[in-house]
Amino acid sequence: MAAVRLLLDTHALLWWLFEDPKLSSAARLAIANPQNQILVSAASAWEITTKHRLGRLPEAGDVPVHLPRYLNRARFAVLNISLEHAIAAGALPGPHKDPFDRMLVAQARIEDLAVATTDQVFQDYGVAVIW
Questions:
Q1: Mean predicted confidence (pLDDT) in 88-104
Q2: What does the DSSP 8-state code read for residue 118?
Q3: Residues in Cβ contact with 32 at an 8 Å cutoff, skipping those fewer than 6 apart
Q4: Which residues, 6 or more positions from 114, have their beta carbon under 8 angstroms from its beta carbon?
Q5: Exposed/middle/buried for 68, CB within 10 Å: 0-12, 13-18, 19+?
Q6: What CA–CA distance (Å, rounded) separates 61 from 52?
Q7: pLDDT at 95
Q8: CA separation, residue 84 to residues 66, 91, 121, 126 (Å)
Q9: Domain ranges of the chain
Q10: Which residues fall within 8 angstroms of residue 37, CB to CB, at 6 or more apart?
Q11: What pLDDT shows up at residue 98?
Q12: Which of 49, 63, 105, 127 stands the most exposed, by the fewest C-beta atoms within 10 Å?
């Protein structure tokens, strides 16, 4: 099987970091495969930190403070948000309002990435999903 460039949705990232059994075996195998490039969007850092600050993600523990260390340890690359990503996310059609998902969709489409996610919206936008 060819190497995959895989963008982790925020829940997939957290489930990987905390070894949560909710992470599917297909996603777990893809993330663990050393031939695959695993990316985490800066939007996920924004989402984790925002939701933790609002008390909606208490299980994140110290991830909002130490995310760079967690990503480095896991050998995940950071996908920064570019102007092109921001314009594409803002221009996406449809009623989906979650700004974090919209950014990940835009990044996946522009960078030709598959996404590890349980969220159907990615497939609705034509993004390859591994789950």
A1: 93
A2: S
A3: none
A4: 4, 5, 6, 7, 30, 108, 127, 128, 129, 130
A5: exposed
A6: 8
A7: 79
A8: 28, 11, 21, 18
A9: 5-130
A10: 3, 4, 5, 6, 77
A11: 93
A12: 49
Per DSSP, the three-state class of 115 is strand
CB 30, CB 36: distance < 8 Å: yes
Amino acid letter, 1? M
Global confidence as pTM: 0.95
User: Across residues 62-89, what is the average pLDDT?
Assistant: 97
Dihedral angle at the C-alpha atoms of 35, 41, 77, 12, nearest 10 degrees?
A: -50
Other Cβ atoms within 10 Å of 16 Cβ, number: 21
DSSP symbol at 127 = -
| DSSP for 37-60, written as a single string | EEEEEHHHHHHHHHHHHTTS-GGG
Neighbours of 22 (CB within 10 A): 11
User: Is pLDDT at 77 greater than 70 in this prediction?
Assistant: yes
Buried b / exposed e along 83-101 (16+ C-beta atoms within 10 A): eebeebbeeeeeeeeeebb
